[in-house]
Amino acid sequence: MRALIAAAIGLAAALAIVLTMAAIGAPEGKTSPKPLLTTVPSAPGKIPQTK
């Protein structure tokens, strides 16, 4: 029974946080126009080639 009560309290707290964040809204600002530069990782066990 205690576990059920603890789960209900945790769920209520999580729901309260989500609703609060939804009410506040997204922060003001803009995103960067530059794309993120990423590379594809090599396969495991493969030796990286140098140029």
Describe the structure.
The protein is mainly α and about 50 residues long. It contains one helix and no strands. The longest helix is centred in the first third of the chain and has 23 residues, at about 1-25. The protein starts with a helix and ends in a 27-residue tail after the last helix.
Tell me the layout of helices and strands:
Elements: H1 2-24
The largest β sheet comes out as: none
Q: What's the average pLDDT?
A: 83
Q: How big is the Rg?
A: 23 Å
Helix/strand class: mainly alpha
Low-confidence stretches: none
Ends apart, CA distance between termini: 64 Å
Number of helices: 1
Global shape: flat
| Helix share, percent | 40-55%
Q: What's the count of strands?
A: 0
SSE order in H/E notation? H
Beta content comes to under 5%
Index terms:
1 helix, 51 residues, mainly alpha
Structure summary:
It contains one helix and no strands. The chain is an all-alpha fold and 51 residues long. The longest helix is centred in the first third of the chain and has 23 residues, at 2-24.
